[in-house]
Amino acid sequence: MSKPTATPGLFRLTWPILIETLLHVGTGTVSTLMVSRLSDQAVGALGVANQLLAMAITLFQVVAIGSVVVVGQRLGAGDRAAVQRAATVALAINALLGLVVGLVLAGMAPSLLAWMNLPTAMQPEAGLYLRVVGAGIVTEALMLSLSAILRAHGHARDGMVVTFGVNVLVMLGNALLIFGLAGLPKLGVLGAALSTLGGRAAGLIALYWLFRRRLGFAPSRRYIESDWRNHLARILAIGLPAAGEMLSWSGMFALVTSFTARLGHTALVAQSYTLQIVWLMVTFVQALGAATEIITAHLVGAGNLNEAYRQLLRSLRLGLGVTLLLAGLVTIGGRTFIGWFSQDGEVIDLAGHVLALSLLLETGRVFNMIVIGALRAAGDARFPFHMGLVSMWGIAVPLAWLFGLKLGWGLVGIWLALAADEWIRGLTMLARWRSRAWVGKALVHGQG
């Protein structure tokens, strides 16, 4: 066993993850702006298709999240050989899973969109986008694994640089293919799909090159021939409950979106635009949560449990402070922000009312985005999953139906239901961390 790897600092991890996340979200926002020049209907169609793609990508998070924790704890304990074996298993499993999911998305696109209650007029464009991007989703699966392993080693800036390059390619492709610039055919939504696929393929090549350069080895059968089941079991012990919790949220939100679709075209488009701003707003907390998870895994692997406990509380205070500031700005300027996307007065008015709830919704979300990652990193992945099932399906869904449809509060009522779920889950997660019930659940045990 070699010397334990030094635990990376919070700032060193957070800022490149933040920029990478902003670039990811920014690409979606810019693409939405470009597609909005075609029609609001096209935006709504892509919004629903992207929700299905996000649900599929959550499956790949089973391996990506599990590998961050396993590799991080092994690095903290100084077991380099186990790191190489776990990384190879993670890449192999996500490659296989990506191919299978791609076939399902490409072959079942119309049925999936019908299940989402997407209006018939929007289905052709959404189906085209889903088939093209879904068919190549294996690139996203492999990029997630490569980026996760690099982050666990402290190389968070690599993912940031690659994502920037992917964004440039996607935006350039959008400009050329959506609108038919430089003599190319005007492909509309198909152009957005092709540029997304091409950008991801280029990103995969770049990440794999960085993986080999930074870590000094190439994935090979010799790393998994004797012990792959053990490493897969450890990855899944963390990844399955984590992805189950995220899939539960994605499924819940998909069902809630079907409630929104029943409210009509205006509500569906307003939600699509609102989400673009919300995701931009929460990127700092998302990056802070990812960085805290990596640090916690290193500290737990090294046996430094008291420092892991204190680090989570420091991260949580920072996340709440920043979120209060950003949510206040969004509450004040919501209608102005929506006006960047749409000229429809009804859409702007409704989205503005929903954004005013961000101060309530996003402060509750902070607890879940930061504490859940730390619990996973400590090996306590099942509790967030079980609590998520209870809260999402026992609170968010019935309240969304009650407030949004039954009582007639519309999209505002649906978002109030989502806020209730975030706060109840979040405070429960904090109580779990403070109880130290996660102590002793680590996959490896250091000497701290």
UniProtKB/TrEMBL annotation:
Q: What is its main location?
A: membrane
Q: Which domain of life is it from?
A: Bacteria
Q: Where are the transmembrane segments?
A: 52-71, 91-116, 128-149, 161-182, 188-211, 232-256, 276-297, 318-338, 350-371
Task: Provide the protein's localization.
Answer: Cell inner membrane
This protein is called: MATE family efflux transporter
What keywords does the record list, in alphabetical order? Cell membrane, Membrane, Transmembrane, Transmembrane helix, Transport
Database matches in Pfam families: MatE
What is the membrane topology here?
Multi-pass membrane protein
